[in-house]
Model the fold of this input.
Amino acid sequence: MFHEVVDDGPTDDGTAAEASVLLASFKRLLTEAVDEAGVEELAESTALDSNRVAAAGSGEVKSLTVDEGAAILAAARGVDVDVVVGELRDHLLLGMTMAVLDVDTIAGAIDADLTGQEVQQALEGRAEMTIAELAEVMAVIEERKP
Done:
């Protein structure tokens, strides 16, 4: 679901996806999910605090973790959250392979204050990653894909 906001390759104007564009797409995706399913219903079905869900619904998604965002999307769409997260990780890792990128290169190319090891842990699901960090990481990967 998060990975679906990115085309395979450059945009129509020949430029790769930018982090701000991806973040705006993630924001739209999450606000639509909250609008469709409702704050209280999502809070109940995801075990997230209703204030976090309401914040996502109002567009405050930068500090939302990928796992929280995935839980919202999964609950709103009636799919398993592990599938949403797994598809995203697969997309990111496949993109890194296609772009011949390592975690240290990604860490050096993003504004987020993450080391290569922290990027790796986030990609593997051993550490949290925010939606804003996801947008930055995904933008680097998409920019460098052939």
Remarks:
- Residues 58 and 146 are 36 Å apart (CA to CA).
- The mean pLDDT is 90.
- DSSP finds eight helices and no strands in the chain.
- Residues 19-37 form the longest helix (19 residues).
